[in-house]
Amino acid sequence: MKQGSTDITALLLAYALADPPDDARAVMRLSLLDWAACGIAGHRDGAFDAWAATLDTDGPATRLDGRGGAVAEAALVNGTLSHALDYDDTHFAHIGHPSVAVIPAALAVAQMQGARLKDMVDAALVGAEASVATGLWLGRGHYQVGFHQTATAGAFGAAIAAARLLGLDPTQMRHALGLCSTMASGSKSQFGTMGKPLNAGLAARTGVEAALWAQASMTAAPDGLAGALGFGDTHHGEGAEVPFAWRMGAVSHKFHACCHGLHAALEAVRDVPLRDALRVEVHSHPRWMTVCNQAAPDTGLGAKFSYAHVLAMAAHGLDTGDIDAFTDACARDPRLVAWRHRVTVSPDDDLTEMQARVIVAGVECFHDLDTPLSFETRANRIHAKARALVGARADHIVQAIQMDDLPTFAQLLTS
């Protein structure tokens, strides 16, 4: 690693032991609602039913598929199902989905420990902060070369969340991170397949297992992240300087049921008639070219990673905020297939990863996802999204979160 880089292990331990500020907690509670709604809807979709049924070890943890499960298996299943629809939150600081890795780990361990929901929220929050910090330390090169930050950085965040709830001491936490460093994995080659949500589940399971094994006296390299031949050295890590800060307040919640890289373009043309446009030029950050620029997807899952297809959907009045709109039939709809040839996508180094310029009939449209939302606006949009996904159950979930009622919250995930 480069000279003068952050002592990343010490930084992650600082998060694990920190007392979070109230404003960050409030955002984490919104993400907990968002995660729950996405997870319930992800299970309802049914695509992962056969897979989840192969994981049948009994235990104390609630699973979104209605089974009680062993702690690590529950984290795996819940992480996968909550990312199944790719509708969960994203943090653009490192381009990762923090909640689907850390909340399943925190929930499973909290249930095993009989912890309060407040303690679970704090653990998930410091885990999310640790995952973002790890992602920043690894840097854009790690992501660009093909590693999926949700899976890699997310695993370290899940380990911190689990370690906090287990009450590990700093030495045990170092061992947990060392164990995590030899297990964390996940590649962007899985985007557009069932392997992408699995990456989130694997991160959650890895974090739980690493913390449990460290508690059980398993040792590991004390600096598995930044040490010689450690995770950073072997996974294209940049070893960037990363100060301690609370970053979860900048998390982005999705209001379109597709890859977050597509959202700025969709927001840019939200009020623009597209149907009769002969040419639509999308300009976006170069990094998205290998993530969500599938030119001719033929599955609903692939359509979630295609500028051309989501703009074709918008042009034909299909709601890109509706998870049920992204079907295989939609991806193969002759009207949309014919129209998406009108879309050209170009990289633009002058744009950030949260910005897009779209030119329609000579008129330039622009949107920046980094434009701040007030807490009230964010809360209202997440509540509305949750109600659209799970109906009246969303209001009961909100109440359980407000009352710090973990048993009821867990029950609502499956009832």
Question: What does this protein structure show overall?
Answer:
There is one protein chain. The chain is built from 19 helices and six strands. The chain has two domains: 8-252 and 377-412, Orthogonal Bundle (2-methylcitrate dehydratase PrpD), CATH 1.10.4100.10; 260-368, 2-methylcitrate dehydratase PrpD (60s Ribosomal Protein L30, Chain: A, 2-Layer Sandwich). The longest helix is centred in the N-terminal third of the chain and has 24 residues, at 22-45. It is globular. The strands form two sheets. It has a four-stranded mixed beta sheet. The chain has a two-stranded antiparallel sheet with strand order 1-2. α2 crosses α4 and α9 runs antiparallel to α10. β1 (61-62) and β2 (68-69) form a beta hairpin. It is of the alpha+beta class.
